[in-house]
């Protein structure tokens, strides 16, 4: 068994929205396909995946370094011991050859897209949904093929932004079956953000159903002001308060703010996660970890992160992967995590789930399609078709 082709394409995100720091209007995502020589119904099996949402595609890194390394590798070096499936960890090691340690940025996301495509391909070789393949590799059995999910929205949409629009947005999510929500803060004056939080709570009903995300906006003094101001709302969590590598800031806020803190989505390696666990003052009884396999070398590295998190005293149910899409839904279900994000109204064509993924009781279950089921998502059809033509 061997790879016969690898393709990539950069796909722009749709829509014009912003968080407290960046506009997503120019952001793109790397969509990749790995084709092998196994054929089903007269067609070669293809594994599809992408890196994540909210950054930029990595076409140069993929074309110049990582795809050529995979294509040049001895076919057996990419297979597991049985020779009947690909080994994503071995593929990652091939891609990292001659790379210096550190520098965990776009490189980590480019490799992740390809590593995740091997998981999709393996699941298709087994003719099963990816969450089963993931669970088996982790030595687990899936007993509940669903994951708790929350609707992420409440962005700054430019002119016409206001509390009424926020209420209408969250009411629309609630009408679709979501019972928990997340919104952005830090992109407006504190008084305005507090009014927006109160508008969202009119729909959410109570603080335990609403999280807020500052996207790394605050320095220490501003972080403490916001923490003090939002404390009476008893919110679900306060996310990405300051720079993701400013562990001292996170520790300082954790000393004063009794509510849950969420962080980790902008850490791209096990080494960074270990430093977070050592120095950021996180509290295993309440805080949330949001590392994203699509930004951090793929699922093989993410599995090592879980081991570190559990060794530090956290339950894996404290882990809620960033990025509301099908790949992380399969990861959350397969690994028994606490839940995952959903983008029901934003970040198309990648955000949200396919129509076959039913939402009920605040939970979503993957479909029974082999792999991640990306081919079932109507919004992705044109991008996958364009990728297949390359």
TrEMBL record:
Alphabetized InterPro entries for the sequence: D-tartrate_dehydratase, Enolase-like_C_sf, Enolase-like_N, Enolase_C-like, Mandelate_racemase_C, RHMD-like
UniProt keyword Metal-binding, yes or no: yes
Gene3D superfamilies per the UniProt record, alphabetical: Enolase-like C-terminal domain (3.20.20.120), Enolase-like, N-terminal domain (3.30.390.10)
Cofactor section: Mg(2+)
Sorted UniProt keywords: Magnesium, Metal-binding
Domain of life of the organism encoding this protein: Bacteria
Occurrences of domain Mandelate racemase/muconate lactonizing enzyme C-terminal (ranges): 163-260
Cofactor info, note text: Binds 1 Mg(2+) ion per subunit.
Name assigned to this protein: Mandelate racemase
Organism of provenance: Bordetella genomosp. 12
Lineage start: Bacteria, Pseudomonadati, Pseudomonadota, Betaproteobacteria, Burkholderiales
């Amino acid at each position: 068994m061997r790879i016969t082709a690898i393709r990539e394409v950069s796909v722009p995100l749709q829509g014009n929205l912003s968080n407290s720091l960046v506009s997503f209007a120019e952001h793109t995502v790397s969509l990749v396909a790995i084709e092998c020589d196994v054929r089903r119904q007269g067609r070669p099996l293809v594994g599809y995946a992408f890196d994540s949402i909210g950054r930029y595609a990595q076409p140069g890194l993929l074309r110049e370094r990582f795809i050529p390394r995979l294509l040049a590798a001895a076919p057996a070096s990419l297979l597991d011991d049985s020779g009947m499936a690909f080994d994503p960890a071995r593929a990652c090691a091939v891609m990292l050859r001659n790379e210096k340690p550190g520098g965990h940025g776009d490189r980590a996301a480019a490799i992740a897209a390809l590593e995740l495509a091997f998981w999709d391909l393996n699941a298709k070789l087994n003719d099963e949904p990816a969450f089963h393949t993931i669970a088996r590799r982790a030595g687990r059995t899936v007993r509940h093929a669903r994951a708790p999910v929350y609707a992420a929205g409440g962005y700054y949409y430019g002119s016409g932004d206001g509390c009424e629009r926020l209420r209408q947005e969250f009411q629309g999510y609630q009408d679709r079956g979501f019972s928990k929500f997340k919104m952005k803060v830090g992109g407006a004056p504190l008084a305005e953000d507090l009014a927006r939080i109160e508008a969202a709570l009119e729909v959410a009903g109570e603080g335990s159903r609403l999280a807020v995300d500052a996207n790394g906006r605050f320095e220490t003094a501003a972080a403490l002001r916001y923490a003090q101001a939002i404390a009476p709302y008893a919110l679900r969590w306060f996310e990405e308060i300051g720079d993701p590598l400013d562990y001292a800031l996170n520790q300082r806020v954790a000393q004063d703010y009794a509510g849950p803190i969420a962080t980790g989505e902008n850490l791209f390696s096990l080494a960074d996660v270990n430093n977070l666990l050592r120095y950021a003052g996180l509290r295993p009884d309440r805080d949330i970890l949001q590392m994203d396999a699509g930004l951090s070398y793929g699922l093989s590295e993410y599995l090592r992160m879980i081991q570190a998190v559990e060794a530090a005293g956290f339950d894996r149910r404290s882990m809620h992967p960033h990025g509301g899409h099908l790949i992380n839904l399969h990861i959350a279900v397969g690994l028994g995590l606490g839940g995952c994000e959903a983008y029901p109204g934003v970040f198309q064509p990648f955000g949200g789930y396919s129509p076959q993924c039913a939402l009920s009781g605040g939970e979503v279950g993957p479909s029974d399609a082999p792999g991640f089921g990306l081919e079932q998502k109507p919004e992705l059809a044109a991008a996958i078709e364009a990728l297949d033509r390359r």
